[in-house]
Amino acid sequence: MLGRAVGLIIGCLFLSACKPEIVADIYVADIYEVIETGEAIRTPIAVRIPIQSVNDCEESQQKILPILNSFSGNPVSFAQCEGISQELFDIMVVETDIDIIFLGSGATASFSGLGAILIGGSSNLSVYETYFAINQNYQKMIDALDNAYPFAGVDGDSIDFSITISND
């Protein structure tokens, strides 16, 4: 057990795969709806968080979920733990919702979740840019996670964002 923990810590320092990942699938129809109506909509995301072992899944839930829920305005719930073969870590998957928001000319966004997908541009030009914005409490959340896992070195700059835009 101690050997696996030491291996996890050393492995996380050298393996780029041992970092949190945010995964979202959004649809073109959702983007069009937000642009046309100007009303924000919510879409689910998954957050994949490295943990020591699927055997420690319940303990990881008890540490991680309260932290995520305290800094997100949207509920964060446990989905599953996944064993990753040939790696020194496993994955805990949690789910929450984020907003898709259209920013009109000169507008600012207000959202309550861990982040939001912001769409900017002008309907006159039919050119839009898409951004992922993080919650204003993001660094506080990362610091709290780092305090809960002091030897893992949680770094907010190393989180991978994977957003897939699909045509319905």
Structure, explained:
The chain has 168 residues and is of the alpha/beta class. It is 29% helix and 36% strand. It is built from four helices and seven strands; from the N terminus they run αβαβαββββαβ. Strands 1, 2, 3, 4, 5, 6 and 7 form a seven-stranded mixed β-sheet that branches. It starts with a helix and ends with a strand.
Can you give me a brief rundown of this structure?
29% of the residues lie in helices and 36% in strands. The protein has four helices and seven strands.
H and E order: HEHEHEEEEHE
Biggest sheet architecture:
7 strands, mixed
What's the Cα radius of gyration?
Answer: 18 Å
**Low-pLDDT segments, ≥5 res:** 1-17
Number of helices: 4
Could you tell me the mean pLDDT? Answer: 79
Kindly estimate the percentage of residues that lie in beta strands according to DSSP: 35-45%
Give me the secondary-structure category.
alpha/beta
The N- and C-terminal alpha carbons lie at a distance of 46 Å
Shape: elongated
Quaternary state reads single chain
Helix content: 25-40%
Give short descriptive properties of this protein.
7-stranded mixed beta sheet, alpha/beta, 168 residues
